[in-house]
Amino acid sequence: MPWVEKYRPVYLDDIVGNTDTVERLKVIAEDGNMPHIIISGMPGIGKTTSIHCLAHALLGDAYREGVLELNASDERGIDVVRNKIKLFAQRKVTLPPGRHKIIILDEADSMTAGAQQALRRTMEIYSNTTRFALACNMSNKIIEPIQSRCAILRYSKLRDAEVLKRLKEICEIEKVQYNDEGLAALIFTAEGDMRQAINNLQSTWSGFGFVSQDNVFKICDQPHPIVVRAMVKACQKGDVDGALSRIHSLWEQGYSAVDIVTTVFRVVKGMDDLPEYTKLEFIRVSGGVSLRKGPR
Ligand SMILES: Nc1ncnc2c1ncn2[C@@H]1O[C@H](COP(=O)(O)OP(=O)(O)OP(=O)(O)O)[C@@H](O)[C@H]1O
Ligand SMILES: [Mg+2]
């Protein structure tokens, strides 16, 4: 079983990070009167999970009957909104007192504007029995009228320490052998995306039997930050040949310009041993590189 599923939180208390927002969800769960909500944010940070945890907290055993989930792989055109959603909203189910049926629209930003338009009326007509929970990466892809009917919760990327803590817990339970650099590499490559961190942990462990920095970068297929770091250091010293040879070695390994430049950007951001001014200049230059397509 993939670890991302095995370790998917079931209770709101188990969700890592975004404490304030998760607190709000807990208040909603306790109060029982759920507003329509939109949770937006980057991939892999617990949006879908949070909605399911909330639904569990609200409905308990009635979860199976009381929840309709539609995600991007389901047909979600105007007809579905008119028929499937309407049918579910009209259906009688026994719920704990004061609770509502919940319709989960995952990856709602992939719904067409037409379907969203059809939704706005439905949301209103059935709101005494049915509440909507939408998850999306970009809330601006949700049409204004729906936004204005919902409480909007924004999730931010998870902090390194939060991802690290979770990875360590999983390593403990799965008896994964690792060293600290290995976990640091997982965190570097995941960039606050818990799903990616856990997936890469599992791939590295099952592929190599040990989570070290080198093994992680073999799995993640990103330019090795150590090489990039050495390149930046060479630049700092004015050693142009040294810097070029490192870039060439990455290029020969087949990494694209985009891979290399984005890694330079991220490595520089984390290099606390550079003087502030130099660091900002490096960030400015690597951030401003325009990446033209075509042969080199
Ligand atoms: N905040 C978190 N706390 C604990 N585990 C998490 C968290 N966020 C993500 N995970 C792990 O990552 C997996 C994916 O999370 P989830 O499906 O909630 O992401 P998402 O935010 O909905 O992403 P997407 O935008 O790609 O749909 C979960 O099964 C869980 O294992
Ligand atoms: Mg999701």
Automatic annotation (TrEMBL):
Entry GO terms, CC: Ctf18 RFC-like complex; DNA replication factor C complex; Elg1 RFC-like complex; Rad17 RFC-like complex
Database matches in SMART domains: AAA
Q: Which GO terms describe its biological process?
A: DNA repair; DNA strand elongation involved in DNA replication
Its family remark reads: Belongs to the activator 1 small subunits family.
This chain's protein is named AAA+ ATPase domain-containing protein
Q: What keywords are annotated for this sequence in UniProt? A: ATP-binding, DNA replication, Nucleotide-binding, Nucleus
Superkingdom field: Eukaryota
For this protein, the record's NCBIfam families field holds: PRK00440.1
Location, primary (coarse class): nucleus
Q: Name one GO molecular function term.
A: ATP hydrolysis activity
What subcellular compartments does it reside in?
Nucleus
SUPFAM superfamilies of this UniProt entry? P-loop containing nucleoside triphosphate hydrolases, post-AAA+ oligomerization domain-like
Q: Where do the AAA+ ATPase domain residues begin and end? A: 33-159
